[in-house]
Specification:
Blueprint lengths: L2 E6 L16 E2 L2 E2 H9 L5 E6 L10 E4 L4 H11 L4 E4 L9 H11 L4 E7 L5 E4 L2 E4 L6 E10 H14 L6 H7 L4 E5 L10 H16 L1
Parallel strand pairs: 1-4, 1-6, 4-5, 7-11
Antiparallel strand pairs: 2-3, 6-10, 7-10, 8-9
Helix pairs in contact: 2-4
C-alpha cells in the first residue's frame, strides 16, 4: 500500500496580510518546509500545491495550486498514485507525528478520518437577529490532518467540481457523498494560522513547542 501526503498550500493568505502563508518562516523554515519535514517520514511521497512561481521544497514534488483549496486538493489527487492519502494544512505548524499516524490508522479499509476537538466555548447560532445556543456536546472543531482513500476521494472531488459544490475541507466533502467520517482526538496545539493574532501566537509558542 502506497501512502502520500497532500499539502494544499497555494492560498494568498489575504486575512493574514503577509503574502502566501506557505512561504512564511517559523523557526528558520517556511511553513511548507516544516510540513514536509513533519510528514515525509510517515509516507512514501509528499505533493505540495504551490503559489505561482514557488519552487517545491526539498523532499516534495510540487504542482500549481488552484484558485481554491478544493481545486488544489483535486489537482494533487490527480497527480499522485497513492492508495491512501493524508491531507494536511501547512498553516497548522504544530503537528505531532503520532496524531498523523493515528488519523491514517483510523481511515481503515475504505474509510475516512479526521482530527477533531470538542469545543471548550459556548456556541450559538446567530441568524436574522436570533441567538440560539447549540448543544456543545454535539459539536466538534474539525482540524487536519485528514486521511482517506485516493480513488473515492478523487471521484467525489470531480463530482463536486462538476456540480459546482464547494467544501471547506475534505471531511465535509466525503460526508456529503455519504462516507462515514471517523473522528480522532485532535490537539489544541494544532490551531490554524489565519489572522495576525494567530501568527503572533505561533511565534510566541515556538520555543515551548521545541522544548516539550
Amino acid at each position: 500500500m502506497k501512502l502520500a501526503a497532500l499539502l494544499p498550500a497555494a492560498g494568498e493568505g489575504q486575512r493574514l496580510g503577509l503574502g502566501p502563508k506557505a512561504l512564511l518562516r517559523l523557526g528558520g523554515e517556511t511553513l511548507i518546509e516544516r510540513a514536509v519535514r513533519q510528514l515525509s517520514p510517515l509516507v512514501d511521497q509528499v505533493l505540495v500545491g504551490l503559489p505561482p512561481g514557488c519552487p517545491p521544497p526539498p523532499g516534495a514534488a510540487g504542482r500549481p495550486g488552484g484558485k481554491t483549496r478544493q481545486e488544489t486538493v483535486l489537482a494533487l489527487l490527480e497527480a499522485c498514485d497513492a492508495d491512501l492519502v493524508l491531507i494536511h494544512d501547512a498553516a497548522r505548524p504544530f503537528l505531532r507525528s503520532g496524531l498523523a499516524s493515528a488519523v491514517l490508522a483510523a481511515a481503515g479499509p475504505g474509510g475516512f478520518a479526521t482530527a477533531a476537538l470538542p469545543s471548550p466555548d459556548t456556541l450559538v447560532e446567530v441568524a436574522g437577529g436570533s441567538y440560539r445556543p447549540l448543544d456543545r456536546s454535539r459539536v466538534q472543531r474539525i482540524q487536519t490532518p485528514q486521511a482517506g482513500w485516493r480513488e473515492p476521494l478523487l471521484r467525489w472531488h470531480r463530482q463536486a467540481a462538476s456540480a459546482g459544490l464547494e467544501f471547506t475541507d475534505d471531511a465535509g466533502l466525503a460526508a456529503a457523498f455519504g462516507q462515514p467520517v471517523s473522528l480522532v482526538p485532535g490537539d489544541p496545539w494544532l490551531f490554524k494560522i489565519t489572522t495576525p493574532s494567530d501568527w503572533a501566537m505561533a511565534q510566541a509558542l515556538l520555543s515551548a513547542w521545541e522544548e516539550r
